[in-house]
Hints:
The structure is a homodimer. By secondary structure, the first copy, chain A, is α/β, with parallel strands linked by helices. Chain A has 3 domains: about 10-135 and about 305-325, NAD(P)-binding Rossmann-like Domain (Rossmann fold); about 140-300, 2-Layer Sandwich (Dihydrodipicolinate Reductase, domain 2); about 345-425, 2-Layer Sandwich (Alpha-Beta Plaits). Chain A is about 35% helix and about 25% strand. Chain A is built from 14 helices and 17 strands. In chain A, strands 7, 8, 9, 10, 11, 12, 13, 14, 15, 16 and 17 form an 11-stranded mixed β-sheet that branches. In chain A, strand 9 (about 245-255) and strand 10 form a beta hairpin. The radius of gyration of chain A is 24 Å and the shape is elongated. At the A-B interface, helix 2, helix 6, strand 12 and helix 12 of A face helix 2, helix 6, strand 12 and helix 12 of B. Strand 12 of chain A pairs antiparallel with strand 12 of chain B, so a sheet runs across the interface.
Amino acid sequence: MPAARPAPLRIALLGCGVVGTQVARALLEHGPDLAARAGAPLELVGIAVRNAAVQRDSAIPRELLTEDAETLVDGADIVIEVMGGLEPARTLLLRAVAGGAAVVTANKALLADDGPTLYKAADAAGVDIYFEAAVAGAIPIVRPVRESLAGDHVTRVLGIVNGTTNYVLDQMASGGLDLEEAVKQAQDLGYAEADPTADVEGFDAAAKAAILASLAFHTRVGLDDVAREGITGVTADDVAWAARTGHVVKLLAIAERTEEGVSVRVHPALVPTEHPLANVRGAFNAVFVEADAAGPLMFYGQGAGGRPTASAVLGDVVSAARHRVLGGKGPQESTYAALRILPPEAAVTRYQVRMVVADRPGVLAQVAGALADHGVSIDTVRQAAPVDGSAQLLLTTHAAREASLAATVAALRGLEPVQEITSVLRVEG
Amino acid sequence: MPAARPAPLRIALLGCGVVGTQVARALLEHGPDLAARAGAPLELVGIAVRNAAVQRDSAIPRELLTEDAETLVDGADIVIEVMGGLEPARTLLLRAVAGGAAVVTANKALLADDGPTLYKAADAAGVDIYFEAAVAGAIPIVRPVRESLAGDHVTRVLGIVNGTTNYVLDQMASGGLDLEEAVKQAQDLGYAEADPTADVEGFDAAAKAAILASLAFHTRVGLDDVAREGITGVTADDVAWAARTGHVVKLLAIAERTEEGVSVRVHPALVPTEHPLANVRGAFNAVFVEADAAGPLMFYGQGAGGRPTASAVLGDVVSAARHRVLGGKGPQESTYAALRILPPEAAVTRYQVRMVVADRPGVLAQVAGALADHGVSIDTVRQAAPVDGSAQLLLTTHAAREASLAATVAALRGLEPVQEITSVLRVEG
Lengths: 429, 429
């Protein structure tokens, strides 16, 4: 007697932009493979869009499009949300969960803003919520951190999680462009949006940092907990000096656990050229994870784009579908550790301070004295050839607290022979 | 009313070597964290060893040790196997599964030899079998390929999955050592065993290639299906020439899907220095995966060692435990695709052929003719300065079938002006 064929699972897709189109195509074109992996056919029952009259990809049947997202959600087993933005995404996902549907979302902004509300609702309803695509596009990072490292202690996550800024910094380094030129080039190539604020000011990376920190440390971390600094302050000169001292400038999303608590931040940082993250070029993403037992791990791949993001979405859909068919449930978001989130000024890192000082004896002693007064110790000093009575000094410090460094910089500014503090950059990795 | 506390899960550990010791320590020392993640306390009820009288790590209570593995297995909810070897591991795991226990194993040899028997038994019994630690130690690669990429099509896997040979090749490149010296150094540092055969002949890498290929292509691939060539034929000269042409020599585990079927092989290969795998140094491992939608992905980390491997084991234990507590089941091994496994001579790749020829006009034309006769086209030719009437020729071919290349090399050997075919290396990545 042949086994009963499992009933198809009804899939609702919310959003039909770059990612949604690729998700829809994959569901329509790879049915048999997906069914074999999921354990049941996956039937795309509808795609909610704002305007169903707009022309879409020719592979997408018009009759799937609907402007009535609520009704679509109500009849679904699995709801995929790739519309982005806080509303109506939040309301629709809460409705899906309340109705017993599993949810797969790529919405980093929503998760960073209000993830715990969604997680709790999914937990109460006993349904899955998956979001691999919300961090670093195609790169499997959510599942490894949530599941593969569930028996280990993650101590640090360093991520290049925004391809636009990585491309911009890369062009500054390789092409000698200044920031504005590099951003313009990224816009021309479609890597940056007309309004690049979310990328260059670090908002996108901060949302991903909040999600990664929550997963890694089993602690609720929201967007407001992330200290954020974009790349708008990075100059061509900073990038050139970085190269001279064996570093590259990267915009990093950092989540660290110390004995005192958790530090989560996004800022440009100098990364030594021999560090695996230094070789991550162009619009690629990579996440470097350090765990007590596993040691250093790195995950590398495409962090954005329709097809890569759709790959991550569909992996989640298959997981959710398997649970529908075979029973069981994906991992719950757990915040059992509830570690303290440290204020930005408590972060501890190394710094490179570049300054212009008067070229005369005794100046270095004064500068060194100012650092020592604030408990900041110097690792290396480098002095460029003096020009017109001024010398350029490059100090690298040992690890120091952000608060101490800020006080040191203020003190240096007050020193008579210090003409300019040209830049202050953190050194990571 | 407080929720009922879940009953502890009984964990049996088979083996107490380098990995087993670290697994035991973690279970004993991180109880509360593991319980929070697993949803129930994990109680280590015993450790099966060959000789319980041998002194162990001081953190491991003697009373946990037993020589009666059968009884231990019979009373367990989850059985962790880190003893290695085919027997008694296979018999004990089949017994565990038949008795309803979930299984976590790091045993690559057993999985490559007879995985499908285990998978089928686990499937029939409705229990989990997890084996993240069997491939590339701490690096999450099994879970990403099985689950994260479940909605995508993997087309190629290129892995540096044996740290010993990677260390040896690295030393040959950076220190100019010959193979024997580099192996000796690896042995002195504990990276290679007294009998390095399993590593240098590629057996270890071949077992991992079989496992990765099975997962990536949903096709049953055993050790016998893997074309295997170790690094014993790699000379210091090969490594030096590789550097001169912008390559590094790596021992790669390769699994490729073409329209004709699946090719799985392990051999030394020239990797371009700009490829992400080229920068994987020392005893580190990395697996490079190409998928249709996701594009290129890379997973990097420590591929061996007690603590890293234990990290992977414990991640699996938490997954298995969650299914015990919450219901559900991990992914089943599926071989629904059942693709054809191609014979080694059907593999298609580029080649670098180094040879010594007589230094006189017309020789290159003869050589080029021999290649053309077999349908192999030349990409580049490089000639070193002639010495004593002989010239060194370095040919790089376009992609060609292994069978065509073999016939070409035989024909070249028969040419009067060809004095020696010094080396034939594949170019990958």
